[in-house]
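Show me a record, fold above all:
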Amino acid sequence: MLSYPSARSNIGLIAILVGVVLLFVKILILVAECKRRNQSRISDNPSFLTLTMNKFLNDMETEKPIRFTSQQLQIATDNFTNLLGSGGFGAVYKGIFSNGTSVAVKVLNGTSEGIEEQFMAEVSTLGRIHHINLVRLHGFCFERHLRALVYEYMPNGSLDKFLFHGNKILGFEKLHEIAVGTARGIAYLHEECQQRIVHYDIKPENILLDVNFFPKVADFGLAKLSNRDKTHITMTGWRGTRGYAAPEVCLRCPITHKCDVYSFGMLLFEIIGRRRNLDLNLPESQDWFPMWGWKKFEAGELEELMVVCGIDEKDKEAAVRMVKVAIWCVQYSSELRPLMSVVVKMLEGALEIPNPSINPFQYLMPGTPIVAAFPAYSTSAFDTDSSQKITGHSFLRGTPIMRRYEIEIASSMLK
């Protein structure tokens, strides 16, 4: 028989255990009630998960580039049979996925180092940005025997087909819209991305057109990301296409995003003239269109240019704006070139365009310094000082044609 003190001790222990159990039960009840209330809130709006959130998650999944297998791309392209075009980079094939989405598959060829550089440039830029005037990158494939980039398919191909090959189906109004849209895409790269993106190869072949001839900037194989606090970029090799590349690129000087502005200016001249800027089959005075355009503007004879280019009376105001913008864009000094966001506004007629008073090609005259007396501009649209003196560079002159058409060889490039 237990003693009295022992019995009291057992009763106390039982009381403690009962208290602990009751506390634990209360906690469980509280947790269950919280879960019940949470479930009740969700059940009040069952579409929250099944529609809104599911769509959001699906959209997020499709926003990022997909890594395809070589087998998937072989099936989509019918074993790479529908060739859209080819070049030094490789070939582009049309493909269709099982969900009906048409794509353009660029298969990269070349040296291992060159492929990797172009591959990383395209994926690192287009893979992180989205804009209505930039071609969309759906995904990529990087395997031992297939390195490819998968883009949205652009049914009307590139702009050059409608400028240089006798194809006149696009009216001047549509060409003006294409110029504005292209400018918007470049402005986004320069001014709206978290890291500034310099394209380096703006030209008609890299402006693609969708089914409605809506323009999208493409081919980011030479593109480079740049921190916004870094004003100049030092290049170790040539980038771009001769005839569109800015003088500072040719000279391998430190460059800025304004090299794209120069290239866009050269593109504008070709849109205005519907011809290559250099055409030796034309009379000597017109064979290099940018120089001829400047001379006609300086002499106040743009009417002759409009007639030669076949521009109707109703389009002349927009055409004059394009000529003036093109002249500003191809200024020798990068500081005198406008920002692309300003280019958009000037092309749209939202900003008055100062009359260019500086010959953009004066630097082609040996030993001639350029003194730029920049006009006052109340909106501070051009990020430049009021005056700038540009010193000449040492050129190793080539043939007479090379001297006349900016196809210069910088002596530093031959060292």
